[in-house]
Design a protein that fits this description.
single chain, alpha+beta, Jelly Rolls, 6-stranded antiparallel sheet, globular
Length: 247
Amino acid sequence: MTAIQDEIGEMRGAGYSVLRAHFTPHLIDACREACSPLFLAYLKRHGSRPNRGPYRHFLPMSFDPPCFAPQFFFDDTILRIVRGVMDDRVVADQWGCDLALPGSEYQAFHLDYRRPLFAEEPGLILPAHALIVSFALARVTRENGPLEVVPGSHRVPREEALRAVDAGGAPVQAVPLDIGDVLIRNPWVLHRGTPNTSGAPRPLVSIRYVRRWYTDDSREVDRLPRSVWQALTPAQQSLMRFPVGDR
């Protein structure tokens, strides 16, 4: 429990934490092998229309196993951290992949929301009501574009944090990931993608957990196959806020 509390403290202070070697390589390898044809098919259709900046794409992840595995969504350690930062009534509402292709450039530092929770107080500092849990399907190195984050920037008004970054007065931390590493971050921490100078795409898969009262449909999600939904326990089903398909 002490380790969990340490991770929760890191999340509240720095705004992100990395669980090293958390998922087994076999689980990640199976996901990558199953999803790679889907990624290639997506890029064949949409490769000329990047939706996250030059040579960057976000696409919904499939819920067909082994692209989907219950271990990704219902891991006890991850859920203890997520619930410890927020509360016990969280739900998962996004399951997608960020593909940074060779040729991608630096993104501007940004936050992950379309609009503030309270439009009349856009700079209001609030407790987290969403967390992003990410893991890579290939090693994330300096060459293929790791995420860069500004630790602690979720505790500062956005414009103030951006000015500090522009002035060179804020620390910027790259986050390389090995297979099985899990990055948990507050989406209000300033961050950016960095250039992929390798010869291969860099897929970073993410699950978003939110407090049950929060809704946001800004990103496309796939439907849960009914057979997958029915195989989940009632407790697992209560954690999933996704449309369920007919098949």
